[in-house]
Amino acid sequence: MHPLLGVPERQLACAEYIQALEECHARGWIRYLGACNSQRRELVLCLRKERLNRTARNREEAKVRTAKKKEVWAELEREG
């Protein structure tokens, strides 16, 4: 099961894969026979790449925030 696709970030990053899967699903009952599996697989790989990039970006931002907090606490301890 993939995450929600209505998020603008995902629509930009994986738009072509989302469109391909939606077009395949629109063809009707053939999707139940596995005809859309390759499109789905490509979408999942794109979403995974996007998630890993977001996780790495968040980790780096958290390191910066933690460093700033430590600086502020150290300054407060020096003053007090």
TrEMBL record:
Keywords: Chaperone, Disulfide bond, Membrane, Mitochondrion, Mitochondrion inner membrane. GO terms for cellular component: mitochondrial inner membrane. It is found in: Mitochondrion inner membrane. InterPro entries: Cyt_c_biogenesis_Cmc1-like (IPR013892), NAD(P)_OxRdtase_dom_sf (IPR036812). Belongs to the CMC family. Required for mitochondrial cytochrome c oxidase (COX) assembly and respiration. This is COX assembly mitochondrial protein. It comes from Tremella mesenterica.
